[in-house]
Amino acid sequence: EKGGFEHFMLKEIFEQPKSIKDCFRGRLIADEAKLVLGGIRDYATALINAERIVIVACGTSWHAGLVAEYIFEEFCRIPVEVEYASEFRYRNPVIKEGDIVFAISQSGETADTLAAMELAKSKGAIVLGVCNVVGSSISRVSHEGVYTHAGPEIGVASTKAFTAQLTVLTMIALKTALRKGTIAEQRYREILVDLENIPKKVEKALKTDEQVKKIAEIYKDARNFLYLGRGYNFPVALEGALKLKEISYIHAEGYPAAEMKHGPIALIDEEMPVVVIATRDSSYDKIVSNIQEVKARKGKVIAVVSEGDSLIPGMVDHTIEVPGTHESLMPMVSTIPLQLLSYHIAVMRGCNVDQPRNLAKSVTVE
Ligand code: F6R
Description:
By secondary structure, the chain is an alpha/beta fold.
C-alpha cells in the first residue's frame, strides 16, 4: 500500500503533483478563467462583504493559514488574522456577526480547532471549513466548506494535505477577489494558469530528491537548524522547521529572515545549518542581504532558489533550485525540498518517520 515507497511520508510527498491536481479537478477551468467552488456557494457573497477574516488551525494547517493571510490580504484586501485554535478558544476573542472564520484541518478532528469553530459560531460568525477528511467533525460543524481531496494522509507529518490546503485557499481568495473587483481580470487569469501549472512545477521540484539526500547526509548530525524566509516564504520556513523537528527530533526554528537580527543571529556559528528560502520574488534583494549576514558569521547556508539564479549560488554552501511561479503560489513549490530534507535526515538518523514518538495523526484531545 506504500506504492513501492519505503514510507508513507515519502509516498505522500511524491503524490503531490497528483493530489494538487485532484484538489482543483472540476474546480479550476483555466482556459475559461473559471473557478467553481460549490462548497461555499451560499456564503460567497458574505465572503465578498466580510470586514475581516479569522483563520483558526493548528500545526501545519496553521502554517497554511499564514500563507492564506498574505493571499487574502493581497488579492481581496480583507484584513486577516491567523490564530492558533488553542489560544483563540480561551481568550474571549472579538468576533462580530458576519465575520468569516476559516477552520483549516487535515483530519477534521483536531479538538482545539473544533472548539474554536464552535465558539466562533456561537458569536455569530460564518464558519467555513477547509478539511481533507470527508464527513469529519469539523466538516460537519462548518456552515459550508471546501474539501482538499488530497486522499488519505497516513504519515503523521503532514505533507500533501498542506499543499492541497494552499490550493483550496488560493482558489477561494482568487474567486472572491474577482467578484469583489480587487484583482485585475488579466492578473486573475494569469494566476489561474500558473496554478494549473503547479503540479508540473512540483514534479520538477521533486527531482531535487537525490541532491537533497546528499545535503541531508552532511547535516544529519546537526543539533540545531534555523529556517529563514520572507513574505510568502516565511510560513514555508516555519513549516520546514516543524517537519524537521517532528520526524528527526533535531531542534529547529523557523523565523522571518529579518527577525534574525533581533535574537537568533546569536546562535549562528560554523556549526549552524541555516536553510534559507530565497526564491525570486518581491523580497529577493532583502533575503540576499540576510544570507550575507549569516555567511558573515560563518553559518552554513542551504538555499532554496529559483531556477537559473546566478547570484546566490556564489554566496552559499548549497543551493537547491526549484521552478519559479507567481510568488503567491511559491510555497507549494518551495516547501517540497524542505519536506524531502526532513524525510532523509530522519531516515538517516533511524527515526520512525511515519510514526514519530509522542505524536498522533489526529489530536482529538486539547
Ligand atoms: C505536522 C502535523 C500537525 C498537524 C496538526 C493539525 O506535520 O501533522 O502539526 O498539522 O496537528 O492537524 P489537522 O490538520 O488534522 O487539524
